[in-house]
Amino acid sequence: xxxxxxxxxxxxxxxxxxxxxxxxxxxxxxxxxxxxxxxxxxxxxxxxxxxxxxxxxxxxxxxxxxxxxxxxxxxxxxxxxxxxxxxxxxxxxxxxxxxxxxxxxxxxxxxxxxxxxxxxxxxxxxxxxxxxxxxxxxxxxxxxxxxxxxxxxxxxxxxxxxxxxxxxxxxxxxxxxxxxxxxxxxxxxxxxxxxxxxxxxxxxxxxxxxxxxxxxxxxxxxxxxxxxxxxxxxxxxxxxxxxxxxxxxxxxxxxxxxxxxxxxxxxxxxxxxxxxxxxxxxxxxxxxxxxxxxxxxxxxxxxxxxxxxxxxxxxxxxxxxxxxxxxxxxxxxxx
Length: 335
Hints:
Elements: H1 2-12, H2 38-47, H3 50-54, H4 73-90, H5 95-104, H6 113-123, H7 130-141, H8 155-162, H9 173-196, H10 207-213, H11 217-232, H12 242-260, H13 269-285, H14 303-312, H15 316-327
Helix pairs in contact: 2-5, 4-5, 4-9, 4-11, 5-8, 5-9, 6-13, 8-9, 9-11, 9-12, 10-12, 13-14, 13-15
């Protein structure tokens, strides 16, 4: 079955696609699956990982919102995957590779969203970057087999995870699709959540950008996706029109200036930052309380890095629970 799928890719996908049979392979050699291609196997490993399940209790933008419909890091990941797969399928690129990168791209995100990144960056010797932490998760922290570190994913999936943000572009077109789809997803769903929270209205958004992209959530996504497909069809790179690209940048700039920093919904961030920094300092002085699963044997893993791995892996509610257990006095009774 795997060979049939690999041959089908060669027949049906674009010459610019990344074919499963041509993968650069894994860090550690393994016997191939009878039924799944290497990228399908990577997707399944990510979905079945503990880090993936924890995303449902990690903040996307709004910390502890009152309501069931605000996005979490997990729903964001699923929206990125849906958008990216649609684009990859339309361009006849490798949808399985695209899906695997999408599902794994935020595995290293801290609790409390970007506030968590800020908290760890302030107390650590190097800047915390969630894309690099996501790569650490799949390379080392998630365990499948005792004798093989991490999930042992293919080179193409790991490259896409690492370079979904930051200065470097992914090597594959599938990775480039995920990089842009990530922004399409968060720009639009963060606008949707901010409107739901009555922080902004549609009239507050840059109207020239709205006129270009659309006045509602689905129309804006449709415009961005269609533009990417039309501009990239039959080409060796992923492109967008200047008009849609500029409108998208305006919306992103508006969100950074009005939602991501200083908005009413972000008022709890200072508490989240203080909590994670307290946890970091506590574990630096009490390293024996770090769970054994984070005490990896690689010689270049410093105590600081082990603590970062532990805290970054926490969900919002687990970080709050640990903070209560460590820093909030408990009542005691005498019979």
